[in-house]
Amino acid sequence: MSDTKIAQTVLCANEDHDEETPAVARLTYPNARFRPTTVCADDLDWVAEQALDEKASVLIEPVEHDHRATTDAIKELVKLHRRAYSEPVKAILLEAPDAPCYEDLPETLEEREKLPARFHTPHWMGDCTPKSWVCNVCWDEGTTTRWPCKAASEHGGEVFAR
């Protein structure tokens, strides 16, 4: 058996690149606004600035390649965050890796309420009156459910223990 290490390169998911570009980070959106994805160094700067401008949450994890360290890009993002908010992030609630995105949610509120508890994470509605925490999946056209919703209250361990 050989001790040969096979180098794997994770590619940027941006389809607008002319050629395959190595990714430097994995992005996860706790509010399920977008599906998790990978980005290159150029796209990471744009995503980070956009998220800060919109005060949106995005979890950025480095992608390690055998031929390139990516910690510098992550350190730059931390500096941007601290400049924007003047304090470090204290806690991050991660969405379930298999959480459905906005377009894939069931049609009716009843079907959404029956989704596994791990999908019933909070979302901060800071741009409305009154400001409140709502469930990411328990909503219907014109209707939202305060968080914790019924599923999150009954099965809280599944919401936070992954």
Largest sheet: 3 strands, antiparallel
**pLDDT below 50 for ≥5 consecutive residues: which ranges?**
1-7
Radius of gyration: 18 Å
What order do the strands of the largest sheet run in, or round the barrel if closed?
2-1-3
Please tell me what the overall shape is. globular
Distance between the termini: 36 Å
Count the beta strands.
6
Quick check: average pLDDT? Answer: 75
* Tally of contiguous helical segments: 5
Which structural category do the helix and sheet elements fall into?
Answer: alpha+beta
Strand proportion, as a percent range, falls in: 15-25%
Task: Describe what this molecule looks like in 3D.
- The protein is α+β, with helices and mostly antiparallel strands and 162 residues long.
- Helices cover 27% and strands 17% of the residues.
- The protein has five helices and six strands, in the order ββαβααβββαα.
- It has helices at residues 41-54, 71-85, 109-113, 150-154, 156-160; strands at residues 25-28, 37-39, 59-62, 122-125, 132-140, 143-146.
- The strands form two sheets. Strands 2-1-3 form a three-stranded antiparallel sheet. It has a three-stranded antiparallel sheet with strand order 4-5-6.
- Strand 1 (25-28) and strand 2 form a beta hairpin.
- Helix 1 runs parallel beside helix 2 (71-85).
- It is globular and about 45 Å long.
- It starts with 24 loop residues before the first strand and ends with a helix.
- Residues 1-7 have low confidence and may be disordered.
